[in-house]
## 1
Amino acid sequence: MSLHIKNAELVDSVAGKLTRADLFIDNGRIVGIGSAPKTFKATQTIDADGCSVMPGLIDCQTRLRDPGEPEKANIESETRAAIENGITTLCIPPDTQPPIDNSATVELIHHRNEMFGHQARVHPIGALTRGLAGEQLSNMASLKGNGCIAFSNAKSPLANNLVQRRAMDYAAGQHALVIIQPLDHDLLANGCAHEGAIATRLGLPSIPEAAETAALAKDIELVAQTGARTHFGQLSCARSVDMVRRAKAKGLPITADCAIHQLFLIDHDIGLFDSNMLTLPPLRSQYDRDALREGVADGSIDCLCSDHQPHEIDAKLKPFPSAEPGISGLDTLLALALRLVDEGVLPLADLLAKLTLNPATILGLAGGKIAPGEVADLIIVDLEAHWICSSANFVSKGKNTAFEGWDFRGRVTHTLIDGNLVFQS
Amino acid sequence: MPNNNIQLDENGKLRHFLSIEGLNQGVLNEILDTAESFTSVTDRTIKKVPILRGKTVANLFFEASTRTRSTFELAEQRLSADILSLNVNTSATVKGESLLDTLQNLEAMQIDMFVIRHQDSGSAHFFAQHVRPGVSVLNAGDGQHEHPTQAMLDMYTIRHYKQDFSRLRVAIVGDILHSRVARSQIHALNLLNTAEVRVIAPRTLLPVDTESLGVSVYEDFEQGLEDVDVIIMLRLQKERMRGALLPSEKEYFRKYGLSQERLQRARPDAIVMHPGPANRGVEIESSVMDGSQSVILQQVSFGISVRMAVMSMIVGQSGLHSGGET
């Protein structure tokens, strides 16, 4: 199929600007910008007048709950939610059931995505240790050969520093990226809310910043020791941003992301025990949120992710400390990103780099930019379309949003993956 | 601020009783006044009024309790309610029934009021948000959040002995971090315009930013006791030693145990309170507990009147005036 997108405003994150030009796509690739190659003949034309064309979003942390938790979601439901919301690539952490620590599970995920998926690219992140137990190394080389793009222990503890050091050494030897969500499980204890005035007033077991920063300090030291290229996921604290900033300045091979909800919500939003506000890491203070935004603006934080965690209704229908943490984030990822632009955090092209170019570069994935020869994973977005967030309208199976009733702008009108039109509103 | 109005109806009357936070001085005073009118009932030979006649109250205790549960049951009996008491940790939820299913199954038995104790902070609000209209929830302790009837019986005790809150210095001593009683007391004391509320504890038993609750914080017991009118001692759970929050009971008593000698620091007419059950020799010396300044046993008997008051206000009848005798 060959496609001509007319009158488009292209969001170019490489040059950090917006340009107005026609776009020509053939055989799954971008073949021309502004002018078509001589032999080009469009089989389909889309008039994108009034809309913007962007690279498809790359979400570096999404839980599809597949295999293992069909009551929450599955590959079919969540890849559909992804393409309808402009997300063309999903990176899934290894804490599926069973975990992604063997080739069979990797193949199962790929197989299910081929059978039931909606053509979104699904990339498994392999387990750093076998069974995520933090004791023995997983078969990283084999898993990498099967398509795992990085290795992580997700939220399972790496309690033994020697095991962690060796896992990072081994991964570095395989030229594999290590992804760590810094979390000290001793300091986490049974906490469920940020340690501050809100948790004090509500009597909620609290999670101090040190549950993240003490782990992060150790992790950074192990990066310095091993040289393993490491990406830190879902940072939540001001002090973490500062530590990453300083480590990067020293030249350590470090990158970082944060969940996009962490740039909007704070502990105060828990209100009267709203279990949709239960997340891990917890919603922190306004000070932390502002520092995260600064980190996004100055490049200390390279990527944003949905940290998508769809749940069945019952998982949240419990008293706050007993409910399950996480927010269903696919349906709001793009809208929240656009809101960050509106709130002046970064201009559109630079902000979108956190969801396109940067994750593609860090994870070594196709897509993420609009350039001749690039894979045609593209979305067309009506930036002026206003909508009110209602979980009832979510495409994701998980209706657990923290943004019910929010006023958003920006709707995806078309999604192309590999040059194929996989969604059209 | 969160909207706590779930507790009050459009006329400002009690619909549920979940937390002191979110209530106002008027409601607290009405509880205390109503409780006073019930005190005479508990002193009579026939200790019953028909305010809850024909109503069914379910006592749902997901956590063990002796005195709170028995004083609730007595209060319910004296208001002529039909009573259903369940120890839920030994029944359905162990078999995997969800909390809401438990609640709804009981609702189907035409329960009018639930008295609930549960280990999760926020559970009382959770239940109140999910009961049918017309069904009330009364919090008998939710996690580390609030225990509002305990706080009100403490306020009753303080008012009984000291009258005017605006002239009082009150010290709450011990495990503030884990104490739902302390949180409710602090809110109640502040709503009643207490001159100064102090909390006294080692740092490991203080939540962060304790001052934001509206208290002054003392880590030194002696200093904190200077010139106080009311001393409220909190129970120290034995688990705290295992959790590395404290070195030993002995050291705790040495630094934070209320002895006769320390009591001298307070005003000579200071009263000593404890929500019970007390650990003699850990947080309080036996001679103080049994001494002339202790009002610990009075607290327990006031607990019945206060719980009668709250329940009668929830069903829309304040005190004896609208009740009459059986």
## 2
Amino acid sequence: MIYLELFLNFIYVGITSFGGGYAALPIIQHTVTKSNEWLTSTEFTDIVTISQMTPGPIGINAATFVGVKTAGVLGGICATLGFVFPACIIVTILAVIYAKYKKSDVMSGMLRGLRPASVGLITSAALSIITVAFFGQELLELTFASVDLIAIVIAVIAFILMKKVKFLSSPIAIIALSGVVGGAAYLIQGALV
Amino acid sequence: MKEKRNYKILLPLFWETFKLSAFTIGGGYVIVPLMKKKFVEKLGWISEEEMLDFVSMAQSCPGAMAVNASLFVGYKMAGFIGQAVSLIATVLPCLILLTAISFVYVAFASNTVVKAVLTGMSAGVAAVMADVVIGMIGKFIKNKDVISVIIAAAAFVCVAIFKVNIIYILAVACILGFIINSRKKGAGK
């Protein structure tokens, strides 16, 4: 049965995808284009593109898309549930342990190290988001050939507005406003060039 | 001992988590500024330390970081039921949107308006991420927390420049934290 197959295959993807969405991509690709011939390689590339354009974790997006493509809406739900299933179990165990033992020496010691390490990882993610937004590529392969002035101006203004204007202090409001203003700016630029 | 759960929280939990998930554009880490502003500063559901704990643990689990982090918040707010509510609220925006897009994906991916708006949004996301990072590192510096600054800088260099798998970084950080804590205790005696 296709629904069960989707569910089980995405459980496997869920278990093996440690360390962020992009780590899961090769596993998803292998699962849906090689182990099961649910999608062609081209279709898979389209999914990656769309996942980058839409909100939500890339693993969930891929699971939904593959499921819907192969077996309709119910297929999408089955694949997505499969993907989150292993994480749910492990997170539940950790959440219970955390609630009980967060003040213990071992746990608080480990968290003492984990917190700043996470800040470091978040900083790295932020830097790559910023360089991709401003220059269209990651910092290490930067050539400054494609500086996106509109993006820089919008980001700087957004940054200031977030601090100064109270009702724009919500990141959601800022992101939505940037979408509207930036969208208009890019469309005008496109029309002029 | 059973804690009394406040089930009135479930509806706001669902709605806030749903919005959070819908705006996590450009990768799982974008959930950090959203959580900090909403759950920590505005609603006071979790402390900033707890948020960092949840993010750290979420990264150490398989699957999507943003989903895992929401699950921790859900558990904290209303136990297993809260977790279930958080799960549905996180997954639902993706399910709805991707299902809709999967029927028109060629038109969607090549639409100039969609592309322009999304590029604009990613500039906003860049500003939001810069803000949260400056706030977090600023706090370490303000508290003169040298050890945290060093660990954060080391983790950053490892992942940004040497592309080390984050699982190893987190494992080493765990051990370091444990050693630092127990040494401090020993020195205190």
